[in-house]
Design goal:
Elements lengths: L2 H4 L7 H9 L1 H8 L9 H18 L5 H17 L7 H24 L6 E8 L8 E8 L3 E7 L9 H14 L2 E7 L4 E5 L3 H19 L5 H5 L13 H10 L5
Parallel strand pairs: 3-4
Antiparallel strand pairs: 1-2, 2-3, 4-5
Helix pairs in contact: 2-3, 2-8, 4-5, 4-6, 5-6, 7-8
């Protein structure tokens, strides 16, 4: 067994690598099996919009009303299956605004004038020197492009490094141009990801750094001691903060 597998990590993903880069302590907690347990309202909005917009990309004739019904149904299912307490005001705000993302996004995908070959697909690959596979899930695969849909509450003027890495994995495996479609409530901004080899190299180097930390000990909690949490980072929840305070002995 390699150092990843010793800690129960049988594959890597762009989200794991992005979390390792952004907040290593939280990434190690996840490897240890300590997580929030479920996503929140913003993530539900993203999943709901992604699936509805994939439908209109494949069938331009689908009316907005049907797409909104699909999105609302998926959102409500995620909400009803939630185990943790969620801010109901935020939940209802996201649901109320969901139709805006659908209407704007549907207009964009209809305007592309092409139909995807598949949607919500899986990619798997091995990167040099990394002993476990990378796995990712794209939104839309076209003849010469692979597109990922991102709903955003506030429109961006540039692509984040994290999203570049994610989309590059799809482009690298599928040998297609990777695109990121930022869908807002008023407009869509689409960005082609350039320099795919650069971002693939980033993921490889980050994975190697994670492996070095995991090689420190077969005990994941001893590995945790090589880094330290930053509670100013928005990624921390009350659940993960409580676990971290115990693991790093913050209140002794």
């Amino acid at each position: 067994m390699n150092h990843f597998e010793k800690h129960g990590l049988m594959h890597l993903s762009p989200s794991t690598i992005n979390q390792w880069i952004a907040e290593p302590a939280l990434c190690l907690l996840k490897i240890a099996g300590i997580t929030d347990g479920e996503a929140g309202a913003a993530a539900w909005r993203g999943t709901s919009a992604d699936r509805a917009l994939a439908k209109v990309a494949s069938n331009n004739e689908m009316p907005d009303e049907d797409l909104i019904k699909i999105a609302n149904k998926i959102f409500d299912e995620q909400h009803s299956n939630a185990q943790n307490h969620h801010d109901e005001e935020k939940v209802q705000k996201e649901r109320k605004e969901l139709h805006q993302y659908i209407t704007v996004g549907a207009k964009f995908y209809r305007s592309l004038g092409e139909t995807p070959e598949s949607e919500q697909g899986k990619v798997t690959t091995m990167l040099p020197e990394i002993n476990i596979p990378f796995i990712g899930y794209y939104d839309l695969l076209y003849k010469d492009k692979v597109r990922d849909t991102k709903t955003v509450g506030r429109m961006t003027s540039s692509v984040t490094q994290a999203h570049n890495r994610q989309a590059s994995l799809y482009g690298y495996v599928l040998q297609k141009e990777p695109w990121l479609d930022y869908v807002g409530k008023k407009e869509v901004r689409a960005f082609k990801v350039d320099n795919v080899p650069y971002y693939i190299k980033q993921m490889q180097l980050a994975a190697l750094s994670l492996e070095r930390v995991l090689s420190y000990s077969d005990d994941i909690f001893e590995c945790c001691q090589l880094v330290f949490p930053d509670f100013d980072n928005f990624r921390w929840s009350e659940i993960t903060k409580a676990a971290a305070k115990d693991i790093w002995k913050m209140e002794r």
